[in-house]
Every structure is written in C-alpha cells, then in structure tokens.
Amino acid sequence: MKSRPQLGALAAVGDVDGRDGVLSARRNYLRDVVRPLCRLRVFLTASVLAAGAACLPLETPAWPEPLELEPALADARAQSEDEALVRAQPVCVLNTLDSAGELGHSLAVRHRRDGEFLWVSYFAYWSNERPWGDEPLILSLAIDAVYSHFLFSLPGLQHVLYGPGDIEGVTVVYRVRDGRLEIVEGHADDGHHHAVRLGPEELAGKDHQTLLLTSWWSHQLGGRGAARVAETPNVTSRCFVGPALVPLTAETAARFRLGTREQPLRARSAWL
C-alpha cells in the first residue's frame, strides 16, 4: 500500500523533471546563442573605441601662450578699466599632489561687470589627466589604460568625450574698491565634480593674490584652504599676472571644446 504513493510521487517528480528538462534545454540553447553575441558586442564596442581613438590626432593643439603686448597695449590706460583690473590681479594655482600633466603658462580669462562686482572666470590647462598620485595602483592602471590613454598609446576616452588636454575652471567674484579687486567668493568643482563655494578667507593670499588650490589627480580647482596651505612644504605653485592672463577667444573655446555660457561643455564653473 505504501509503494503506490511513492510511485505517484516519483511520477509527479518525473513530470516536473521532464518540464524542467525542456526548460533547461531551452535556457541552455538561448545561453549558447546569446553568449557569442555578447562577446561580439564587447569586441565590436572595443574595436569602435579603438578605431575612434586611433583616428584622433596624437598631438593636442597648443594652449595660448602669454600675450606679447605692444607698448601701447601694455599701458593700462590703453585697456578698458575692467580688463586692466583683471590683468593686474595675480592668480596662483597651488597643487598639493604630485599629479600628472604640465600646467599651461597662461590662464584663459573671461569677465563681466555686475554693478560694483566683477565676475572673473579662469580656465586652467593641463597637458593630460592621469590617475597617478591618489588612487590605488590597480585602479590607476585600469583608469589610465582606458580613460587617459587607450592601451597606453592612443588618445583615451577622456580625449574622445571631452577634448584635448585637461581644462578646469573657477569663477571668482571681486568687489571693485579703490581701484583694486577685493575677493568676495569663488565657485569651483571638487574632486567628485560637485560644485563648491569658497570664501575670501580661503582664496586670499599675501600681497592681494588670488589662490586656487587643487588636491586631486583630475585637477579640479575647488580645493579648500588655499591660503592656509600656501606656505606649507610640498606645495607647488605657479602664478599668473599681466600678459599671462589671456582673454578667452571663440577660437580657443572651439579648439578645446569648452562650449559657451549657454551650453558649457568643460570647466563649468568658469561659465558662471
């Protein structure tokens, strides 16, 4: 009497196994069909990226050099009042990290007047952006092999997506007082591309300098405490004043794919 329920149970299990067997066969079939397609997709994607990178020029365009002003233009009276104020304001870029890339010899500048305030935006150029200095070795290798330099030789995704070099931006709001610029606040990005506001106590250096700080391999200029770390060891600094503050032209914006104020593409904090 006990054997029949066991046989019934076995029969039920056998039915389930049969259905499962069919489903398993179909699943295995689909897997065998899809897997090569997925591999092909990955291969094609990598090939397209490699081909696109290979078609890009290995040499990046030249960032503007400091202006060679003619004697008439070198005289502040021959410039607009605001332009003279902007060029007379020394700006120093500080770096607490031994990051890759060479900082350009000039800052591209745009400015606009708002009553007693002068909004001055600075674009800083680095020759490249590579993750050495503040990332684990394996992660640095992975980023560098794809993002910075595809297969360590061709232009990487950074070049494909954003354009040549690495360009970061900051906007400093000044108050015009007694023929000089007084720092009110600054706007920049941090290492996570989050917008940050910087106070005058963080930006103002000795001799009325404007201090901009980066502490990341990706060179964003939203580092805090520039005035505090300016005199500490292991901080590199490059200052720009006069001819080294060059006007941002439409040609430079197009060449480096910077965008416009209405549609910023790079260095968004410099388009405020």
Describe the structure.
The structure is a single chain. The chain is α+β, with helices and mostly antiparallel strands. Helix content is 36%, strand content 24%. The protein contains eight helices and eleven strands. The chain has helices at 3-55, 71-74, 81-88, 137-148, 157-162, 200-203, 226-229, 250-255, and strands spanning 91-95, 107-114, 117-126, 149-150, 154-155, 166-177, 180-189, 195-198, 210-214, 236-240, 245-247. Strand 2 and strand 3 form a beta hairpin. The longest helix has 53 residues, at 3-55. The radius of gyration is 29 Å and the shape is globular. It starts with a helix and ends in a 17-residue tail after the last helix.
Q: What is the secondary structure topology, with strand pairs?
A:
Blueprint lengths: L2 H53 L15 H4 L6 H8 L2 E5 L11 E8 L2 E10 L10 H12 E2 L3 E2 L1 H6 L3 E12 L2 E10 L5 E4 L1 H4 L6 E5 L11 H4 L6 E5 L4 E3 L2 H6 L17
